[in-house]
Amino acid sequence: MRITRTGGGRGRRAAIVATTALTASALLLTGCSGEESEPGDAEAGGNITLTVADYGQFGYKEANLFAKYHELHPNITVKEETTANEQDYYPKLLQQLNTGSGLADVVGIEVARIKEVVDTQADKFTDLSKTINVGDWVSWKAKQATAKDGTVIGAGTDIGPMSLCYRKDLFEKAGLPTEREAVAKAVAGGWEDYLKLGEQYQKKAPSGTYFMDSASAMYNAVVSSSSQQYYNAEGEAVYKDSPSVKQGWNLAAQAAEKKLTQGLPQFTDAWTAALRKGSVATVACPAWMAAQISTNSGDAYKGKWDISRAPGSTAANWGGSFLTVPKSGKHVKEAQELVKWLTAPEQQAAVFKAAGIFPSNQKAYDLPDVKNGKLPYFSDAPIGQIFAEEAKSIPEAVLGPKDGVIKDTISNQINNMEKRGTDPDDAWEAATETLDKALG
Q1: Nearest Cα to Cα of residue 32 among 334, 332, 358, 347
Q2: Torsion angle of alpha carbons 163, 283, 12, 101, nearest 10°?
Q3: Is the CB of residue 128 less than 8 Å from the CB of residue 103?
Q4: Is 231 helix (H, G, I), strand (E, B) or coil?
Q5: Burial class (CB in 10 A: 0-12, 13-18, 19+), 433
Q6: pTM for this predicted structure
Q7: Rounded CA gap, 216 and 206, in Å?
Q8: Region for 319 from its dihedrals, namely left if φ exceeds 0, alpha if ψ lies in -120 to 50, beta otherwise
Q9: Other CB atoms closer than 10 Å to residue 231's CB: what's the count?
Q10: d(CA 227, CA 244)
């Protein structure tokens, strides 16, 4: 799941990925080769506008993709309608689906919502299985958007392979290792080792700093590394007994008790202010998080951040989205062709280069803009290599229709443990009571 764009999503300004090979424009032109559509309205010489509804940051503006698409298809203009907060976006989307009006030609859907949409609204979306090359995506990504009858309602945009973002300068002052390989070794045993590293940090922590931004962020990282999270394979909500939920909750309670966390829910004003002030030493860091950190930390901390592999040996995915085509659109065929083009390897590589948003299309991983990708802001961390390695071993997670609701409810109670000192047992009881009512 992704605090991803849910709860604020990705940064509004892009992280710049340094590469050493083909330009984005060259890749874009290559990606279009042999993919000319036969637009319906254009056959009569007409111009059309395709609307794309999304949220947070998909990277298309930063990569200049819509302008490039217009160059390749002069009769088609693409208009992006972006909602800053996914939590505001999704209820509106459900209302549009239920009323059958107001839908864009292309609609973005966040991974924490895709199961609910697949189970309850799949008949309102075009089957993309004949349009996109489903086998190009990491296998678990394609399955997330596949209905029981085999129809594929969404083309994967990005995924969120997990890493650990950390401040080298603060680590050095606290007497901790600073090289990314040494940091990875220090937390190789898992998130328990991460907390131990936090206790070491606390002993010599620079005044006014905290080891992590929030325990709820760590909790989500722990849960995201497991194949069983909030639901089982039979579709039953099992969060009360889920081993990953229990582990994440217990670790979050320990972090709060030991005051290793600043207790700042991610993407709030207080969280962005903390990054700007430089008071946070580590952030659980899915691929898209780098843009958030660089944007909010600013130039003063460029080169002081670095990126290491995430704690433990089990890869985790936190986040990701899909592009869908509602059947009710006026230009369904053209919309499908646009989705195919936007999610092709070359365009996903261009988005990664421009905004640091990691591709779900496996064929992008060997393209120079991904393979050689580094983040200058994060001490030239080789993120293309780091995230590609993580992506190959991420377990296939069981998704449920209310994953987002469960995650947010539990996270809110973790925040109460951090900021209000709520007893863990009382916080858990409050979370489960709320969820019992919400899930029926």
Answers
A1: 347
A2: 80
A3: no
A4: strand
A5: exposed
A6: 0.83
A7: 23
A8: left
A9: 21
A10: 9
